[in-house]
Amino acid sequence: MKKIAPSILSADFSNLAQQIRSVEMAGIDWIHCDIMDGRFVPNITFGPLIVNAVSKITNATIDAHLMIEEPEKYIEAFAKAGADYITIHQEAVIHLHRIIEQIKALGVKAGVSINPGTPVSTLEEILQYVDMILIMSVNPGFGGQKLIESTLDKIEYLDRLREENGYKYLIQIDGGVTAKNIEKVSQKGCDIFVAGSTIFSSGNITASAMELKNLI
Ligand code: DX5
Ligand code: ZN
Q: What distance in angstroms lies between residue 164's CA and the mean position of ligand 1's atoms?
């Protein structure tokens, strides 16, 4: 299953419903919500309130990417808000296995993300438990950055580990994905492609979303 997950980080929030409709017109059925607390990353975005608003706008799969410290305090609120996937950062938690189980106990799919500077080896003990691994291909905090090429090796490695061990996780990439690099990322074994500025700052949301969808 290969999916485009538009990140509303780059959307026009004064017209959020219309912007989401525009990606839906391209047949997109995932929406990526970038949650930032100004502590784990140097930016502040939004919380469960907006995720709940998105859940009222669309039936798309809501993918909440928590770039926050102490995510364990907020997973219930995001689950209640309508998140279908909750992804936390390996770097932000002490008890990674426990929080994965807590997310799943809420009936939500559990994802774990690592930053460009964090090795995949830090995830090896939990790969059998997670529903998705999110590889950050930029340093988190802002949209519109350039994809860091070396992070693609992590996708290839995770795809191989999945194959060799029969793991079931989806592989997701987030940051700097465009029509120019998405085919290469897909060939590495990626399943879910987060794209923000290349869609919402393109001038034609539906066409740019459709273009990405046709390339994977
Ligand atoms: C970074 C954010 C961005 C966003 C995608 O913290 O997570 O990666 O989703 O942004 P673009 O697609 O504009 O790089
Ligand atoms: Zn994200």
A: 30
